[in-house]
Amino acid sequence: MKYPKYKKELEYSYVLGTTLVFELLQNRASDAIKIIYSSKLHQELLDKLMTVCHKYQVPLELDDKNVNYLSDKENCYVIGVCKKTYLELNDSNHLLLVNPSNAGNLGTIIRTAMGFNIKNIAVITPCVDLYDPKTIRASMGAIFRMNVSLYNSLEEYLRYHSKHTLYPFMLKAQVSLQELKEVKKPYTLVFGNEATGLPDSYLEQGIPVVIKHTKQIDSLNLQTAVSVAVYEFTKIGGDYFD
Q1: C-alpha pair distances (Å), 39 with each of 21, 43, 59, 64, 96
Q2: Residue 6: inside a domain, yes or no?
Q3: Is residue 3 part of a domain?
């Protein structure tokens, strides 16, 4: 079978590279449709791959043509074909992204959230493709450890998660993150689009927060703002990790 170049309309995606394929197999093996590999793959890695695929009963196939065709870099010798799975969010803390538009940013945010034990990510459409191979790669496979779910609006999200306290991050907010002394759990940290941020209507939701910075810049970029926020909420909420 010849696999097409990736498009958002496809019902499956591609996981490019050995490290990410192992993340898929070890954390979401049920989503793995097939693993294909190149004859250039080192025998030691192939042996390990064969063992893991056998354990989870995932088809493994030598396929130089497809690997060469789908790879976007020369040293990619393993590709996973996986389902696009959206999982129901649980009742712990959430990260809510409103209309994110950059695959690399989204992947980095997913990885950062995982680093601070936020394992639930809600995304309001329209948005970048959560399963774009660029998103998967930027997340370093963390997406396969996450519950991710799509919503058409904030109202739809709130219907399912009304017990969460929203903390929208906005430049017009009156509460400074640096001055915040306590947080209400479970919480949802809310961020807007990279270019436009959140609409003013979010000032009426929950407890809007601003990350104060010098006037020498207009704003922090999205992934930096998320990193600062999840780090500070970890401290304020008393969540520490070994």
Answers
A1: 17, 9, 16, 6, 42
A2: no
A3: no
